[in-house]
Design brief:
Length: 126
């Protein structure tokens, strides 16, 4: 890996870490979601600084082409992020259903109170 490519890849990784921190600071990204993103970016930063690690890990895993190991690890990180989002969405769906049921019950209760109040007002007017 040339020194120029190494510097550019390290700079991009550092910008990504900065961007993730800014998004967490603005509350656009929760800490739970940011953990996997930061893990992935820090892994890329490590591989950018020390590219020989990828060859060693690929050899250890029996992968003959080191970039295939990188693609494998990137897919694992992406799958973990998707799994985390799926779990979050499922929880939110359950909360939305519960809130919809509570809203319906409150609307029914409100209508009953309005009817009862209307009856009392009519009774006082007579």
């Amino acid at each position: 890996m040339s020194i120029v490519l190494k510097v550019i890849s390290i700079a991009v990784c550092l910008l990504m870490v900065y961007g993730l921190c800014q998004e967490m600071k603005k509350r656009n990204l929760s800490e739970n979601q940011a953990i996997l993103w930061l893990g992935g970016v820090l892994g890329l930063l490590l591989l950018s600084a020390f590219p020989q690690i990828l060859s060693a890990v690929a050899g250890f895993l029996g992968i003959w082409w080191p970039p295939a190991a990188l693609i494998f690890f990137l897919l694992v990180v992406i799958i973990l992020i998707i799994l985390r989002h799926t779990v979050t969405i499922s929880g939110m769906e359950a909360e939305i259903k519960e809130l919809a049921m509570q809203l319906t019950l409150l609307k029914d209760e409100n209508e009953e109170i309005k009817k009862e109040l209307g009856r009392k007002i009519k009774g006082e007017q007579e």
